[in-house]
Amino acid sequence: MDFTLSKEHEMARALFKEFAEKEVKPLAQEVDETEVFPRATVEKMAKLGFLGIPVPKEYGGQGCDPLTYAMCVEELSKVCGTTGVIVSAHTSLCCDPIMTYGTEEQKQKYLVPLAKGEKLGAFGLTEPGAGTDAQGQQTKAVLDGDEWVLNGSKCFITNGKEADVYVIFAITGTVEKRGRMQKEISAFIVEKGTPGFTFGTKEKKMGIRGSSTYELIFTDCRIPKDNMLGQQGKGFNIAMHTLDGGRIGIASQALGLAEGALENTIAYVKERKQFGRAIGAFQNTQFQLADMATKVEAAQLLVYKAAMAKATQKVYSVEAAKAKLYAAEVAMEVTTKAVQLHGGYGYIREYDVERMMRDAKITEIYEGTSEVQRMVISGALLK
Amino acid sequence: MKIVVCVKQVPDTAGGVKFNPDGTLDRGAMLTIMNPDDKAGLEAALRLKDQYGAEVTVVTMGLPKAEEVLREAMAMGADKGVLVTDRVLGGADTWATSTTIAGAIRNLDYDLIITGRQAIDGDTAQVGPQISEHLDIPVISYAQDIKIEGDSVIVERQYEDRYHVVKAKMPCLITALSELNEPRYMTPGGIFDAYKQEITVWGRADLKDVDDANLGLKGSPTKIAKASDKVRKGAGEKVSLDPDESVSYIVDKLKVKHVI
Amino acid sequence: MNLEEYKGVYVFAQQVDNEISSIAFELLGKAKDLAKDLNTEVTAVLIGSGIKGLADQLAEYGADKVIVVDDPELKDYRTEPYAHALASVINKYKPEIMLVGATAIGRDLGPRVSARVATGLTADCTVLEIGDFPLQPTPGQEQLHNQLLMTRPAFGGNTIATIACPYNRPQMATVRAGVMQKITPIKGAKANVEEFNPGFTPDNKYVEILDIVKAVSNTVDIMDAKILVSGGRGVGSPENFKILEDLAEVLGGTVSCSRAVVDSGWKPKDLQVGQTGKTVRPNVYFAIGISGAIQHVAGMEESDIIVAINKDADAPIFDVADYGVVGDLNKIVPKLTEALKAEIAAAKG
Fold first, then answer.
1. Which overall architecture, per CATH, does domain B2-214 show?
2. Smallest CA–CA separation between B238 and chain C, in Å?
3. What residues does B172 pair with on adjacent strands?
4. Nearest 10 degrees: Cα torsion B226, B232, B233, B238
5. Of the candidates B159, B179, B255, which has its C-beta nearest C269's C-beta?
6. A39, pLDDT greater than 90
7. C209 - beta bridge partners?
8. If B175 and its partner were Cys, which of A61, B36, B141, C233 is the partner (CB 3.0–4.6 Å)?
9. Domain ranges, ordered by start, for chain B
10. In this structure, are strands A180-191 and A228-229 parallel, antiparallel, or unpaired?
11. Which residues of A87-110 are buried (b: 16+ CB within 10 A; e: fewer)?
12. Taking 90 as the threshold, does the pLDDT of residue A342 lie above it?
């Protein structure tokens, strides 16, 4: 087993790091403070192909592996959690299902501009009454001639309103499963601007405040029949499989936040003096840092393993769940400790760790809470 | 149009500097980057490629590790890479370096050669003009703008208090300032493609029309008598006074030092 | 190459618009010291069109002899005719040392000429002296005397190297403006002038100058400035640079800045000091609201005097500053400007 990255991956990391330092970091505080979506950054990333990293070249992407993509989200999140999740939601939750389940026509029409970054993507599964329990869906789609008619709403949608293309899940009927009637869920591609598709309120969040989180509302929203993604009734599988990939993206985001907080803290404890010496000279600080660094590296290994599993395995739910569970909890722990080591300065907005701690919390919640990840992992153990 | 861009892998001076026992630099021990002026030269070439269509070949001389800057250049959009590396070329000063690179470029077709003005490790600004001399072509140093017009280049050549708009027939050599442009980033896919491409590796035997007497440490007219880490002068005084006292303090010091 | 044939210390006497550049006088000052150590003469090489009349000025600043290459092809600086002129002078007169200013002209002309006459060239020297090579007697290697030892910083000032050119002649060096001292001019000194024209036949290397655009004052090269008033992110806003500009004006200095300022779009990149900007070596460097990241320090620590003003007492800039003042730049800088104004007025009055 060899844990060294290839030269290509090393160079890609250098690229993401340079971009993050030069283009993203200077805006991170402002993006958080003003809660304004960093459109200009997204456009820069689009130009460089960051919005289609794992998409094959024939569909306008960069043709790189999931590890390269994970490293991109990681490096962006090191300096700005908001920017990390924008890329993650776009790539994992919108490009990926269209790439996996889309027809050739759908790929040409939607995936190509998404991968080139000409369009931004989002994903709508969660509903007010259906978070962890995806079966609780209420949004319905009814076939009327050549069109599906959508009614219902989705909430907490990342890239909401900013995105142009949405992968939406809705009930298209009921099926009998093991003697019980269950909702039949299907996936659709919905374009912004479709009549009947509107946006509700913008959420005011604790962290990742520059990412645009909206409610999506469908009122007799008619979409072409051809915009069904995958087979009718396969929506639940599509959603779950998509989230497996999404969790690798979020795990990368969590990892980046933890790394960013650790780097900031190392720099701080070398400079900050108390009782006449740098606080890094105190053993408490040193041991805390040692624990933080060890956990960060363990998280990185899990995240990279999951990314490699996505490249080589058909099913990687457990790897993704472990990576996300661990990276998210490490992110929360490390950012919290980072704030503590910064003392009073860690609690004020001038210091990045304050934002990183707020940003980290969501990684334990979205795209499957830590509890859901534990269900996935233990479910596989006890199968 | 065919453009040759010369780039150098240089130590990232932020990472500290290390020496061999003979006073030459231990390049292997330092973190490296593409020299900033060279990167601007590459960007200029890539813009000419975007605008007029061109084949861009990147040439570097260095340790085998210098292959990395060629990959980087190709990931930015260069078409080909040539690495000139050989033990006998080591320890070269600017004369021997320019002799070597000219010997490599003689094997290539070119209309335009672009080099950076200077490298951040040596800061000499000599290799570009010296290559042009060895190849007997015109040189335009310190380019702040480059245009193509037929078989000529039109360059804004920077001086301290002015610039000349200079026209030269190709082939010619231009040295680029880092102020010339903001170099593009690589693309992720470009990086992976760059590593799939072949890089041409040339040694001493591949150099055209060069004399052994002009290569490497032996062929370098300049010799290092002594090299060392600069002794940092360290902190001077530091005072914390109210604004008026601070002002008097500075004024007094400037008087003592005969600045005013 | 018979090294013994090469005699004398030569200076390329740069002129622009038929006005001798200050660097030429500075080089003459140094050349005089070197010539004294070598017991030889100082010769200035004056190249241009209609410039014979300038020769006596060079004598006033220490030239024993002036070789004048005067030809219409040499009106404005172009690499080829100038390189031809200087290389021809070297081939004919065989100087042992040839000094050139590290200016935008000299840093183009020097390398081209050194390649043509097949000798070494050491760039941007800060110290020139006569000594032995190797510095210490070394077994198995002849120690040569009366060599030009050229000391220069490299790696953005991180290293310093002393270089010799023992087996080739001339020993060529370029020197940055402001490093060497000119002598007090000897009024009325007359040069021993020798005219020389190697003949100029235009070929493809004679580039065509289509236009000459003289820059307005805002493009002062910060590398040439004697006094730099440099601002960092701590200045707070592009508008607030006004207080730095006022200070610079009083001292006849120039404003420069840190990378953070350029990244924020407050100032253009050509004013940036540091590893990715310019390396500067002014007499006085004011670091105002600059924290002093290593990349910045690499570009300015060679300055003769560094004055830092920063509100953060722990800012790393204080580790390199000669005079560090912990305090609010908004309060100190305007008062400093006023105080200096008064001092200068008093000195003049």
1. 3-Layer(aba) Sandwich (3.40)
2. 4
3. B112
4. 180
5. B179
6. yes
7. B166
8. B141
9. 2-214
10. antiparallel
11. bbbbbbbbbbbbbebbeeebbebb
12. yes
Structure tokens at B226: 């002594």
Report CB contact under 8 Å: A271, C263.
Answer: no
pLDDT confidence of B119, banded at 50, 70, 90?
confident
- Number of residues assigned to chain A: 383
Helix (H) or strand (E) holding A150: strand A147-158
Question: How large is the greatest C-alpha to C-alpha distance in chain C, in angstroms?
Answer: 65
* Chain A interface with C: residues with Cβ < 8 Å: 22, 26, 271, 273
Check residue C4 and give its pLDDT: 87
Torsion angles phi and psi, residue C46, rounded to 5: -110, 120
The predicted structure's pLDDT at residue A62:
98
Q: How do residues C211-222 score in pLDDT, each as one tens digit?
A: 999 875 455 678
**Interchain proximity A15–B71, CB inside 8 Å:** no
Residues forming a β-bridge with C285: C228, C306
Give the sign of the dihedral formed by CA B130, CA B134, CA B135, CA B139: positive
Q: How far is CA A134 from CA A127, A221, A225, C22, in A?
A: 8, 22, 23, 80
Spatial distance between the Cα atoms of A137 and A131, rounded to a whole number of angstroms: 9
Average pLDDT of span A27-32: 96
Pull the structure tokens for residue B211: 């004399």
A199-217 per-position pLDDT tens digit: 999 999 999 999 999 999 9
- The single-letter code of the amino acid at C212 is I
Which residue out of A271, A274, A279 would a mutagenesis test of the C interface target, given it has the greatest number of C Cβ atoms within 10 Å?
A271
The Cα A107–Cα A110 span in angstroms is: 5
CA distance readout (Å), C213 to B162, C75, C254, C270, C298: 5, 16, 21, 18, 33
Chain position carrying tokens 């390199």? C320
Using the structure block, give the residue that is written with the tokens 């002393």. C162
Q: Which helix (H) or strand (E) holds A241?
A: helix A235-271
Buried b (16+ CB within 10 A) or exposed e, C184-223: eeeeeeebebeeeeeebeeeebbbeeeeeeeeeeebbbbb
C-beta separation of C175 from C48 below 8 A? no
Distances (CA, A) of B153 to A204, B118, B132, B148, B174: 56, 21, 15, 5, 9
pLDDT in tens, C229-265: 999 999 999 999 999 999 999 998 999 999 889 888 8
Tens of pLDDT, residues B181-212: 999 999 999 999 999 999 999 999 999 999 99
**Residue C232 main-chain phi, psi, to 5 deg:** -115, -165
What region does A200 belong to: left with phi over 0, alpha with psi -120 to 50, or beta? beta
Q: Does A118 participate in catalysis according to the annotation?
A: no
Look at residues B117, B101, B6, B169 and name the one whose alpha carbon lies nearest to residue C108: B117
The 3-state DSSP class for residue A93 equals: helix
- Express each pLDDT in B76-114 by its tens digit: 999 999 999 999 999 999 999 999 999 999 999 999 999
Q: Could you report the average pLDDT of every consecutive run of 10 residues in chain C (349 residues)?
A: 91 96 95 96 97 95 97 96 98 98 94 96 93 92 95 76 95 88 91 95 94 72 87 93 94 92 86 81 93 82 90 90 93 94 83
Residue B230 has pLDDT above 70, yes or no: no
Nearest Cα to Cα of residue B95 among C122, C154, C6: C122
- Total residues belonging to chain B: 260
Cβ within 8 Å, pair B71-A63: no
pLDDT at C160: 82
Alpha-carbon separation of residue B15 from A101, A259, B91, C96, C318 (angstroms): 48, 21, 21, 39, 21
Q: Which residues contact C62 (CB under 8 A, 6 or more apart)?
A: C28, C29, C31, C32, C42, C182, C183, C186
- Interchain proximity B188–A53, CB inside 8 Å: yes
Strands (E), chain B: 2-6, 9-11, 32-34, 55-61, 80-84, 112-116, 139-149, 152-158, 162-169, 172-176, 200-202, 223-229, 237-240
